[in-house]
Amino acid sequence: MANSVKLEIIxxxxxxxxxxxxxxxxxxxxxxxxxxxxxxxxCKLLDIGELWIQEAGAAxxxxxxxxxxGGFIDVRDSIIIYTDAVEWSEDIDMxxxxxxKAKAEDWLTHHEKDGDPNDVIKAKIAISKAITRAHxxxxxxxxxx
Amino acid sequence: MAxxxxxxxxxxxxxxxxxxxxxxxxxxxxxxxxxxxxxxFEKTNANSHYITHTIAEIFHSGQDIPQExxxxxxxxxxxxxxxxxxxxxxxxxxxxxxxxxxQKDIDNDWEEPIIYAIGTKGKEYFEKRGYKxxxxxxAPPENISFLETRKMSLPIIEMYNRGEIDEVVLIYTxxxxxxxxxxxxxxxxPFEVDEETDIIRDTKQxxxxxxxxxxxxxxxxxxxxxxxxxxxxxxxxxxxxxxRTAMENATENARDMLDQLSLYYxxxxxxxxxxxxxxxxxxxxxxx
Lengths: 145, 288
Known about the structure:
- The complex is a heterodimer of chains A (145) and B (288).
- With 145 residues, chain A is α+β, with helices and mostly antiparallel strands.
- Chain A has helices at residues 94-111, 117-137, 141-144; strands at 5-10, 15-28, 31-36, 42-55, 64-75, 79-82, 86-88.
- Chain A folds into two domains: 5-89, F0F1 ATP synthase delta/epsilon subunit, N-terminal (ATP Synthase, domain 1, Sandwich); 92-144.
- In chain A, helix 1 runs antiparallel to helix 2 (117-137).
- The longest helix of chain A is centred in the C-terminal third of the chain and has 21 residues, at 117-137.
- Chain A is elongated.
- The two termini of chain A are 27 Å apart.
- The mean pLDDT of chain A is 83.
- With 288 residues, chain B is an alpha/beta fold.
- Helices cover 61% and strands 14% of the residues of chain B.
- Chain B has helices spanning 2-61, 94-107, 120-128, 146-162, 212-287, and strands at residues 79-84, 114-118, 132-137, 167-177, 180-189, 207-209.
- In chain B, strand 4 (167-177) and strand 5 form a beta hairpin.
């Protein structure tokens, strides 16, 4: 068993997760990356994506999966992930995800050219968040492929 | 004459009693709201401390921080004040204390300040005095969401980056206990690096990705947002605590007043009776 490292995931309104993990895998702006005990100190921005956690003492392929809406990770002697929103796969409400995705896509088809650029970006972000959450709800992209 | 006086006192007793009912009910409502707000506050407080601490740590340990966010690198001319007040009155000195502190600070500035008002009371105050109000948030503060604070802080940070404002000051009420609140005045930007903090300056190399600038450009707005969000939540808690105290005092005063009034009423009644007896006695004496 490898050494475990303390992980804390914080959102503005609550402490989402606190515990010891073997590895945490997140999507940074430059690609997926795994952090384990003794990782060199880092401060990285996260993209919208999946968050994989293998808790200390868990079986080799037993992961907890969550959808994360960007943020940043601060790796020191312990790891802190700070994000605006994060959800465990089992808490994701599929109907809401799909309806939000449909709404954003619908808006985009009508307004992509003439809409406010900020709104267009927002809609695109909403779609990518929805896609991520849909993947996560089904157990994660990585597991599916 | 005496009966007239009695009528007056009776009427006053009635009005004070109904006021007492109202203040007492408001006290109970505030106590309930305070409990709720306190629960939210305690949850966010722990986390926002955490976040600000982390961010402060990064600010301290990083050597290549973009200079525009550090104190002492440009002259402070225009200041943006974010003043957190409540949307409703009847909460004692809660709003006055915040506004007094803000006014004191503004009076010390040479240039005209820009004001961001959270809560109607602050907005009305500054509007009346002809200050430039850049923006406001008037919905009840206890229901604020993080998204809304982001919408508030984004334009402020943009203004800062464009150089239209040189300083961002947050004035809000900080919660010490249910009985005690204190007005706090925090400079959000520029970030002041305090050399003597207990944060250990580590020399370990930290990897920044995609780049130091990118990380800081992300962190600075985050810091401002978090601070504003925490301040609004804290201020809402204080508002309820202040209102509860104010209403408790009002109820107590009303009860004291009722005691006094019923004393006067009884006195007036007694003297009326005495007058009547004297009249009867005098009448029967005269008939002898």
